[in-house]
Specification:
alpha/beta, D-Maltodextrin-Binding Protein, domain 2, 2 domains, seven-stranded mixed sheet, 10 strands, 11% strand, globular, disordered N terminus, SBP
């Protein structure tokens, strides 16, 4: 029981930079899946009508609520199997949606399908609440329309070699930059990790000659949530969350420390959170920072054409953090074949296009990604380009405490010279992986 309570805290914590995205995140295909090819078969209604599915979802605003109901209506009217989806909206409530879903599920009142967060996977799979989707996906004619890395992330979340979540929409971190500052500093958009470090150095400038830095090269997030962009530095040196004490991981940590000690980031970086890094970038105080498409509209409103983006570049390794909203089918559903028709419609058919275009979330469908709407948007393009190497912070019993307390405290002490890179990484590794 103690283990389940701890994992529940992880599940309900909307990690770091991403927070809550709308009921799903989100342009066009029309082929229907032939569920007869799936190995999992379930008896459907024999009264001449197709099955009725209950779908629980959350929506961030009334426009998204209307959008989801319109998508449901279109699916109900166009699917050729007589399936009827009944959408029931619940508030996200700071993660309370997942708690409500879990409580209903263990009490025997689960819906057929629900929107879902990756971080909740271990709690639900440990209680055998989710349907295994391996056979469905293997026999799905649109399986290859989704990057294999996305499936791998689904497996990583479950801690198994199986998939229990159907991909829907994502938020992938990338680097925002100011083209005018790059031009003034005489640097090009980095294509390698070493070029990125050089760009941070060169875009740190005293523009008025008073001996004080006016523009810092990078907006570093040292407070809670900063573990996600920090992870890109660790992986770029060839390290990983799996072994934070490796030589490569320590080198990535040393890069992070050096950037701070050399004065390439604001001195407040040790306590800067989301609001601070965005404010520093929008005020022209920093040349680069890391976030996702959720802030792109505000950036364009502030800078017009003088803001753009690039994927975090590769070094010996490459990684960026991915936020998500997925869909799951419950093991208790008597209509799993029909449920897969619905979740696949949202993943790679018309529902995927309608949702992602309207909400501005990043589609998982390669076909949808190729639409001009996404390819002509540099922020979407940077997100899509990062999808093949995106990942998540490991979901463990220790993750919540590690994110909220251990990581920010340890990073602050390392940046301030109170701990070496080796010492800091030892603490971070033990804090994350201690069982």
């Amino acid at each position: 029981m103690k283990r389940l309570l701890v994992i529940t805290l992880v599940a309900l914590f909307s990690v770091g930079l991403f927070g809550c995205t709308a009921a799903s995140n989100s342009p066009s295909t029309t082929d229907e899946t032939d569920s007869s090819t799936n190995k999992n078969t379930n008896s459907e209604s024999d009264d001449g009508e197709g099955p009725t599915l209950t779908y629980w979802y959350w929506a961030d605003n009334s426009d998204y609520s209307d959008l989801m109901q319109n998508i449901i209506t279109e699916f109900n009217e166009t699917n050729d199997k007589g399936i009827t989806v009944v959408g029931e909206e619940y508030p996200w409530d700071g993660g309370g949606f997942m708690e409500t879903l879990f409580t209903a599920s263990v009490g025997g009142g689960a819906p057929d399908v629900a929107t879902f967060k990756l971080t909740s996977t271990p709690l639900f799979t440990a209680n055998d609440l989710l349907a295994n989707l391996d056979d469905y996906i293997e026999n799905w004619d649109k399986k290859d329309d989704i990057d294999p890395n996305i499936y791998d992330i689904m497996k990583t979340a479950s801690g198994t070699d199986s998939i229990y979540l159907m991909p829907w929409n994502t938020q992938v971190l990338y680097v925002y930059y100011r083209p005018s500052i790059f031009e003034e500093a005489g640097v090009e958009v980095p294509t390698t990790y070493e070029e990125f470090l050089t760009a941070i150095e060169k875009t740190t400038m005293d523009t008025d000659g008073d001996g004080q830095t006016d523009i810092y090269g990078f907006g570093m997030r040292g407070a809670t949530g900063g573990q996600e962009p920090w992870g890109s530095f660790i992986h770029a040196r060839g390290g990983s969350f799996d072994d934070l004490t490796s030589e490569a991981s320590i080198r990535g940590m040393q890069d992070f420390i050096d950037i701070y000690e050399n004065g390439y980031v604001p001195k407040t970086a040790t306590t800067d959170g989301f609001n601070e890094i965005i404010a520093n970038f929008k005020s022209g105080h920093t040349a680069m920072t890391i976030h996702h498409t959720g802030s792109s509209a505000d950036m364009v409103e502030t800078f017009g054409d003088d803001v753009s983006a690039f994927p975090f570049p590769a070094g010996e390794g490459q990684w960026t953090s991915m936020g998500d909203t997925e869909n799951v089918i419950f093991e208790s559903s008597e209509h799993k074949d029909a449920a897969f028709e619905w979740v696949s419609y949202l993943a790679a058919e018309k529902g995927q296009e309608d949702w992602t275009v309207a909400t501005g979330n990043v589609p998982v469908s390669k076909t949808v990604q190729e639409l001009d709407f996404f390819q002509e948007n540099e922020f979407m393009k940077a997100s899509i380009d990062g999808m093949s190497y995106a990942g998540i912070v490991p979901i463990k019993d220790t993750t919540t405490e590690w994110i909220n307390t251990i990581w920010p405290n340890t990073i602050a002490s390392a940046l301030l010279g109170e701990r070496s890179a080796d010492e800091a990484m030892e603490i971070l590794h033990e804090g994350l992986h201690e069982e």
